[in-house]
Amino acid sequence: MSKTLTKSKILEVGGKAPDFESLDESGKKISLKQFKGKAVILYFYPKDNTPGCTKEACSLRDRHSTFKKKNVVILGVSKDSQNSHQGFIEKYDLPFTLLSDADKKVQTAYGVWQEKSLYGKKYMGTVRTTFIISPDQKIAYIFNKVDCPNHAEEVLEKLEELNLI
Q: Catalytic: which of 17, 30, 41, 53?
């Protein structure tokens, strides 16, 4: 079963999802409010073309047709550039939008830009987290721990449980 958390440091299930505006891989402005009326999978990941992030993206890619049929939007967010996102999308044939959050405003708003530790060194980075946002723009669920290769299945299961699909 999935390892989950119902609260992040800032946001809680049932609370309003922070609106944002960010550029997608092609430079188009994307905001959360433009998806009002649809369930949104907003997933934050550390870096394009890294093993865990690639497994997570490919998991969502492989079930994208199911998400699309159910009117669910997938948005991936990292601090990578638009060019990096374009390459990542092309290399793995990703059928969903990736947002470039170089200034970390979206990550900060969602509480996923945090201090991390690797081999005893502390640094700031993106904590892999997925938010399910309901059609009325409220946070329906927060995946604090993500099983990258099986993430799409976890998300679909949770969407069904929450009666969002």
A: 53
